[in-house]
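Our preliminary data section would be incomplete without showing what the modeling component actually yields. Below, a chain of 263 amino acids is followed by its predicted structure, encoded as tokens that our downstream tools consume directly.
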Amino acid sequence: MAAVASHVDKLLAQARARWPGITGGAERFAELASEDDGARLETDDLYLACACAAGDAAAIAAFDRHCGPAIERVVVSVGATAAQRADLVQAVRERLLVAPASGGPPRIATYSGRGSLISWTRVVATRVATDQLPKARREPAAEDDEIERLIASDDDPEIGYLKRLYRHEFKLAFEAALAALSDRDRLVLRQHTLDGLGLDELAKIHAVHRATAARWIEKAREALQHATQQQLVERLQLSGRELASVIRLIRSQLDVSLHRLLR
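Predicted structure:
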């Protein structure tokens, strides 16, 4: 017990050095830190979250500096207009930092320190923003913007027409290809693309080496790209030049379409 207490005191001192002037939530932090040897915990982030949950004003200001840019990027990524963004950012902050009227602690109290606070915040922010933003009020989807960019002025009219035709066919082919992936491939793509988890965080969650997590993601992306191409080849009669255009379309649309379908 003495060794555990000494270890927790050391972690507490390190966290306070990282976040000077923040003192709230120390008891909760010590409780959570004592349940683990600290090797797998993001203890600095955990201390900040505990202080925010306790209502420490300095901690909340530090949270805004630390995680605010990530929240703003999420709000932009879900298609909010410029007029909607400030309201959505505030809605995310309130969900994370303000205790619900029905009682209980704020949402940030559920952060366990496993994985970075920024990544955890991105996951919560994505769910809040997509729930609160009416689809009818969103800006045109990024996928449409990207396809229009591909229909460049240097394409001849025939290829431009084919690319417009592929807009519908691509969606059908991509959905079928995604459904054909293994459960693990879909899971790691969701965690990496939608939840924003990095390789280190994926490795921790799945108890594998970082390099293995990287191979999983690359393998899943290659399988998805190949299956989408095969679906389109089966659906359409394509010449060599047309197929090259389809491959360009698939590559440019992979991340955008993943975000849309996995959401």
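The longest helix spans residues 210-235. Residues 2-135 form one domain. Preliminary results of this kind motivate Aim 1 of the renewal.
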